[in-house]
Structures are given as structure tokens and as C-alpha cells.
Amino acid sequence: MTEPDGPTGSTVPRRQLGRILGELRERAGLKVNAAAKLLERSPTTMWRVEQGKVSSRAVEVKAMCDLYGASPALTEALVGLAHETKAKGWWHAYGDAIPEGFDLYIGLEEAATHLDWYEPESIPGLLQTDEYAHAVIQEDNPDEEPGEIARRVQVRIKRQTLLTRVTQPPTLNVALNEAVLRRPVGGNNVMAGQLRHLGKVSHLPTVTIKVVPFSAGLHRGVMSGQFQILRFPLTGNGRETEPPTVYADGYTGDLYLDKPREVERYDNAFRDIWAKAMPEEASQRLILEMAGNYEQG
């Protein structure tokens, strides 16, 4: 039986679960009414599950996966996700009920219409070059085979197509700590190419990149660490289709927050960071100046 969520349950796991179940149903060639009949559920309940309005028990998710022809690995991941739909501020630890290779964040990123991103240590994945991504992923996974490193780089680079997609590319505001520009990831040639790429991407009409200089001193990003705030499409009457969500990428897991007070705190932090960053034009000059420095060795 599908269960309503309590006032403290995070919406992130059930929204992602519903989104993926809906995609699986469509790939299986089933309309909502037909799937509901086969699963002995009402079409209304099916719609609410796929819209992330309610959570489902693991046994129900298993039945849907079997009907839709999901792979054993994906079924395992979705059943694990069903167990997480009662969490509060949700911490997705790698290798727990949900396998490490199952990337929940990508689904949120693809659905978002607006992203505010603070990055204190490295270039955001959406803006990385192949060479920079390879250096980062290899450093984080020193024991992986070259083929697996290459596969992960491909996945990361493929995500970037959402910035240039024809239908409503998301608005992306990125605040980079100055240290990101000065840390020679992969060597001088890689960094030169990466910073030139930043300059190019910043010309997209939906992308704004600003640098937070060392001279800004203390700001809220020093306390918050890396984070992203994702916002989603509005309905015709201006209401949110999904609540804004804060995502923080951790070393052993990912943090998802979507309670209004949590999001407000991170909104305030980003506004403070953004206000203390260099103007866009000055940021561009510094980025290109640093690219030239790397090119000169």
C-alpha cells in the first residue's frame, strides 16, 4: 500500500524514485491506466507515485520493476531508494542500500531550471574539460582500470549537454573560489585549456561565472563548503512543481536538503558569496589572465 509522507520526510528520494519509475513505464510501452490495471492499483495512485507525491513500499517497487523489465541492478537500486523515502534531511551514503554507481543527482540536475553553485576547491563537473575531468576522477579512483576512468569521464562530459539543449537550458550561476583557478590540476596545459573553456562557456546566455577573490576575506562559503541549490519548473499558475533542493557533494556520500528553512539558509549563504564575488567582467579577465599564465608555464 502506498503511504503518505509525514511532515519531516525528505521529498528527494521519492521524487527521484517516481521520476525513474515513470521513465521505465514509458520505455516498456505502457500507459498509466494499463500499468495500473496490471499492478492492481488505481491510475490516480500511479500518477501520484510517479510525481513523487507519495512513497511506495519496497515490495510495490519490486513489482513495478518486474513489470517494466528493469535490470536486476536497477531494481536493487530502486528498492533501496524506496527504503529511504522516510528520511529527513537525506544523506545518501555510497554503498548503502543504494549502490555506489547509481547516480541520483543527475536526475535532479536534468530536471532543474535554475542552479546556484558554489565551488571552493575545483571546477564544477558541468564546466570541466575532458582532461581536467580525467585528472580529477583518476586522482579520486587510483585503483580503477583506465577503461572505467574513461567511462566516468564520458558520463561527466555528457551531462554538459543540458547547458546547450534546445528546450529550456537551465540558468547556471557559478561562484568559484579564487583557489580553484590557482590550483594546477593535471598540470599547466590542462589548466590553461580548462580556463579557456570557462571563458567560452561563460558566453552562453544562461551561464554566469564569478570569482570570489582571496581579498573578499571571510564569507559564508568558508563555513558552508561546496553546495548547489536546484530549482525546478513552475506550473502555469506560478507554483513550484518540485521544492528547491540543496545538494552537497561529500567524500563518502551526498547530502540532500529540501525543507524551506534549510533551503533559505543556503540561499542566504549564496547571496552573501555572490555579493562578495568579483563582477562578471572582472572575473572573466582574471580567468583569462590565469589561463595565459599557465600557457607561459
Outline the structure in words.
With 297 residues, this protein is of the alpha/beta class. It folds into two domains: 12-88, lambda repressor-like DNA-binding domains (434 Repressor (Amino-terminal Domain), Orthogonal Bundle), CATH 1.10.260; 104-296, Endonuclease, Chain A. It has 13 helices and seven strands. The chain has helices at residues 12-27, 32-39, 43-50, 58-68, 72-83, 104-111, 130-140, 146-159, 178-182, 188-201, 220-224, 260-276, 280-296; strands at residues 90-93, 114-119, 171-177, 207-212, 227-231, 245-249, 253-257. A seven-stranded mixed sheet has the order 1-7-6-5-2-3-4, with helices on both faces. Helix 1 packs parallel to helix 4 and helix 7 (130-140) packs across helix 8 (146-159). The radius of gyration is 21 Å and the shape is globular. The N and C termini lie far apart (64 Å). The model is unreliable at 1-9 and 94-99 (pLDDT under 50).
In short:
It holds the Pfam family DUF5753. This protein folds into 2 domains: 12-88, 434 Repressor (Amino-terminal Domain); 104-296, Endonuclease, Chain A.
Write the layout of secondary structure elements.
Layout: H1 12-27, H2 32-39, H3 43-50, H4 58-68, H5 72-83, E1 90-93, H6 104-111, E2 114-119, H7 130-140, H8 146-159, E3 171-177, H9 178-182, H10 188-201, E4 207-212, H11 220-224, E5 227-231, E6 245-249, E7 253-257, H12 260-276, H13 280-296
Parallel strand pairs: 2-3, 3-4
Antiparallel strand pairs: 1-7, 2-5, 5-6, 6-7
Helix pairs in contact: 1-4, 2-3, 4-5, 7-8, 10-13
